Amino acid sequence: MFIRGSAIRVSPYFSRYWGESSSHLSSFRRSICRSAQLEFVSNLSSKSENTVFALARNPDVAKNLQALASRANVHILKADITDPASLKAAADAVRKVTSGSLDVLINNAAIAGDYPWTALDDYPSQEELVADFRKNFDTNVLGVILATNAFLPVLKNGHTKKVLSLSTGLADPAAVLGIGHKYAVAYSITKVGIEMANIKYAAKYKDEGFTFLTISPGIVKTDMYGPPKKPEDAAKRQEVSAQFATIAPPGFPGAISPEESVSAMLKVLDGTTPADSGKFVSHHGNRNWL
Ligand SMILES: NC(=O)c1ccc[n+]([C@@H]2O[C@H](COP(=O)([O-])OP(=O)(O)OC[C@H]3O[C@@H](n4cnc5c(N)ncnc54)[C@H](OP(=O)(O)O)[C@@H]3O)[C@@H](O)[C@H]2O)c1
């Protein structure tokens, strides 16, 4: 039996015990999951040995998540990863349930910002560029660091001591240069920051049994991957799809389901040891992003 925790749509979400996989909830999951976070909670809480803590900034409106809270091993905690006080309160709540330990933290929450289809020099104004970058940095970099810091004390008492932070293949400089992707600038640049933050944690906790792993979930059918909000951006989406096609493996099926992505990521996570700490890999466990 393993012990785990994580962070989802919600932000961080944690599960305490991790055991055999089960499939009896798969049809239920398919009907409700629209984000990676929800699928992480659904997947991990389907094992009764796990205790899962899901952090949501607006739990009252997270109806699909609330549906999962009917499971005895799911706890929903209100927290915003940009708000250290709310994270501390969440960590205190976890501490009370688990007697002070946590096995896995999953930093899943992120934003794509207000200009996902804008190149660096195409923002309507420099002020809007600055605001978009600050917003992305607050959530995608500082939020992950604040959440990790808040839960490190309980993780130190855990058995597996694993921190999984979600990034994207768009944070791999070689891949981005190779395909010529010029959009999602604030998102891509801040996601690069997560990799370095994990490397810094890996360096500090090298000899303490921790595994800090940055992972890309693939292209996943979630709200984030939804169609562009502005019709004029549809052509840019097609342009990017054609770029992805140049690095897609033979038979690439396109965007995958949250179930497939989360299951693949958890398999990769299970296979990691402290020797992998600081690595950035895909849901395949390598540097193939699609
Ligand atoms: N989908 C893809 O194709 C894809 C590809 C590469 C990487 N990723 C990465 O995979 C992860 C999951 O993304 P997703 O596709 O599931 O996106 P999503 O559907 O947009 O979900 C993002 C989640 O983050 C939460 N969140 C945002 N800011 C938060 C904050 N300040 N505090 C707490 N929670 C916050 C959101 O909560 P609310 O519900 O309150 O808004 C939402 O639940 C992200 O890190 C993303 O960058 C996704």
UniProtKB/TrEMBL annotation:
SUPFAM superfamilies: NAD(P)-binding Rossmann-fold domains. Signal peptide: none annotated. Gene3D superfamilies: NAD(P)-binding Rossmann-like Domain (3.40.50.720). InterPro entries: NAD(P)-bd_dom_sf, SDR_enzymes, SDR_fam. GO terms for molecular function: oxidoreductase activity, acting on the CH-OH group of donors, NAD or NADP as acceptor. This is NAD(P)-binding protein. It comes from Auricularia subglabra (strain TFB-10046 / SS5) (White-rot fungus). The lineage of its organism: Eukaryota, Fungi, Dikarya, Basidiomycota, Agaricomycotina.
